[in-house]
Amino acid sequence: MRITIELHSDKELILPIHYNHILQGFLYRNLTDKDYRTFLHDKGYQLGDKNFKLFTYSRLLGKFRMLKDAGQIAFSSPCKLVVAAGVEQFITDLAETLIKSDRCFLGDIPVEIKSISVHKKFTPSDKVQIKMLSPIVAHRTILEGDKKRTDYYSPWQKEFGQLVTSNLLKKYQILYGEIPEPIDFRVIPNGNQEARFARIINYKDFFIKAYAGIYWLKGNPDLIEVAYNTGLGSKNSQGFGCWEVVG
Question: Are 194 and 204 in contact (CB under 8 A)?
């Protein structure tokens, strides 16, 4: 399930350039069900030793200007935020809370919810061209002695496809209680644009390497639908892996 939230501010909406954590806080704060909010924030849906939040969201969409010297980005009103989730409760709670709110806060900035639009149900095929609305992450944490190292992979490395597919299969299992048939899923970059698509995002003082851009998804339509609702790759609840169909 997916919605688009249109936000309005009386002045320019000035945020840090790396504002993922502000959007994440906005979403959690606007869940009315405190038990559900705590469950999602602290744990989420578990499969084995992995936890999943099963929601994702875009970057802010709209006109902006960079304030590089200040490390900020300024959005003109209105701007939009796309939010998707594999569990309807998340979207329903969020939308109902925002509809009832006269004014919300994005960080410490008051914003007005101008509209909330519900997207039509996504009907996937076995091949779709997509554009990332927030960049995609594929990573592996490696233990070296008593220290951990995080390796990030690009869509042009085979490990990327393996990690994204493994992550997606786990999400499918959580949602449906079984392994899909067939297990067939690929992310294919649209040309050799690795340097152009690469993004370094500072999330709460952790630097994450992710990839924007255009891709093809091929494979089981049921897996593509789960990717649409929950996000591609990892760290979706931190603002990564949201996409839309293009073409």
Answer: no
CATH of the domain at 190: 3.30.70.1900
Domain boundary among 93, 118, 143: 118
160 and 212 together in one domain = yes
Among the candidates 89, 118, 147, a domain finishes at 118
Strand partners, 130: 215, 245
Kindly report the backbone phi and psi dihedral angles of residue 186, in degrees, each rounded to the nearest multiple of 5, phi listed first. -140, 145
78 and 155 share a domain?
no
For 155-194, what is each residue's pLDDT tens digit? 999 999 999 999 999 999 999 999 999 899 999 998 888 8
* Same domain, residue pair 98 and 35: yes
Please state whether 55 falls in left (phi above 0), alpha (psi between -120 and 50) or beta.
beta
The domain tally of the chain equals: 2
Entry pTM: 0.95
Helices (H), the chain: 20-29, 34-42, 88-100, 158-176, 194-197, 221-230
Residue 191 confidence (pLDDT): 82
Helix 34-42 with 20-29: angle, nearest 10 deg = 150
The length of the chain is 247
Q: Please, which residues have CB within 8 angstroms of residue 174's CB and are 6 or more apart in sequence?
A: 45, 46, 47, 52, 54
**How far apart are the C-alpha atoms of 132 and 242, rounded to whole Å?**
6
